[in-house]
Specification:
Helix content is 44%, strand content 22%. It has five helices and six strands; from the N terminus they run E-E-E-E-E-H-H-E-H-H-H. It has helices at 63-73, 81-96, 105-119, 121-131, 137-148; strands at residues 11-19, 24-31, 37-43, 50-52, 58-60, 102-104. The strands form two sheets. It has a three-stranded antiparallel beta sheet with strand order 1-2-3, with no helix packed on it. Strands 5-4-6 form a three-stranded mixed beta sheet. The relative contact order is 0.11.
Length: 149
């Protein structure tokens, strides 16, 4: 493992422990050259999940894209980074538990909508406005009424 600080290959593991409900291993490492410490996570590699986009293009699932969308919805809201990570983890459990190796982006969006509604109502409306592509004020108001009631 290369050191993220000095790019040296001379690193070693100084501590290992289970992480993320025993689905990963957290390893604390030390660079023998610059003496800095860093953490790595080891997870089981799964068969890549293919996301079918709205235009029927296919691309490999990317957790960072999911996180970025949720982060944008939660911008300047009282939602912690840990809550966002937990939400992404919950959505991933849903999408990876399916039998198929392909999933529509609309399904992922529905999973996020279902989870983010409980997290923050403003973030929910923000995510919904992008995900559902509101074309006019009436569709936006209809979604808003769902949150209020």
């Amino acid at each position: 493992m290369k050191c993220p600080f000095c790019s040296s290959d001379n690193t070693r593991v100084i501590d290992s422990r289970p992480a993320d409900d025993n689905t990963a291993i957290r390893r604390r490492r030390l660079c023998d050259d610059c003496k800095k410490r860093f953490t790595t996570y080891e997870k089981v590699e799964t068969i890549p999940l293919i996301v079918i986009k709205k235009d029927n293009n296919r691309e490999q699932y990317d957790r960072t894209k999911l996180e970025a969308g949720i982060l944008r919805a939660c911008h300047k809201r009282p939602v912690s980074a840990e809550q966002i990570k937990s939400l992404v983890d919950q959505v991933e459990v849903e999408i990876f538990s399916g039998e198929s190796q392909e999933i529509k982006s609309a399904e992922i969006g529905e999973y996020v909508m279902d989870k983010i509604k409980d997290l923050d109502p403003v973030a929910y409306v923000r995510f919904a406005s992008v995900y559902r592509e509101f074309k006019d004020l009436n569709t936006f108001m209809n979604e808003l009424k769902k949150v209020i009631s």
